[in-house]
Design goal:
Structural class: mainly alpha
Protein name: Putative transcriptional regulator
InterPro entries: HTH_MarR-typ, WH-like_DNA-bd_sf, WH_DNA-bd_sf
Helix content: 40-55%
Distance between the termini: 12 Å
Largest sheet: 2 strands, antiparallel
Strand order of the largest sheet: 1-2
Number of domains: 2
Region (Disordered): 88-124
GO molecular function: DNA-binding transcription factor activity
Shape: elongated
Strand content: under 5%
Domain HTH marR-type: 2-34
Order of helices and strands: HHEEHH
Length: 124
């Protein structure tokens, strides 16, 4: 999330700030994220690396495949109805997320997407 503080990331993720710090440290160590201001007491500026962007794309594809199997046209009719009910209850990301308006484009197929509820990461 461009410009998001660790506190904002924690709120969006439903975890503690300490957990966000640990996750970011692990992502940096794995070479998936770069911390431009890795100094105590300063705000971090995080950027996704090329390797991180590739992994993120693969993860999104995998999640979309799971969505298709669970809620797509070939899924059990009860699962299709469940997906439709969840989609109706949660039509898109909260407007406070950066890019939320961009993510509110209509879906061409009546399927539920778990990935549509996740915040988008800015790729650089």
């Amino acid at each position: 999330m461009p410009g998001a503080s660790f506190s904002e990331l924690a709120r969006m993720s439903g975890i503690t700030v300490q957990s966000v710090h640990g996750a970011v440290k692990a992502l940096v160590a794995a070479g998936l994220v770069r911390d431009r201001n890795a100094r105590a007491g300063s705000a971090s500026t995080l950027e996704i690396t090329t390797e991180g962007a590739l992994l993120l794309r693969r993860a999104r594809r995998a999640a979309a495949e799971v969505d298709e199997r669970l809620f797509g046209p070939d899924a059990d009719p009860i699962q299709q109805r469940l997906g439709a009910a969840v989609r109706a209850a949660f039509p898109g990301p909260p407007p406070s997320w950066p890019g939320a308006e961009r993510d509110r484009r209509p879906s061409p197929a009546p399927t539920f997407s778990l990935t549509g509820a996740w915040p988008r990461l800015q790729e650089t």
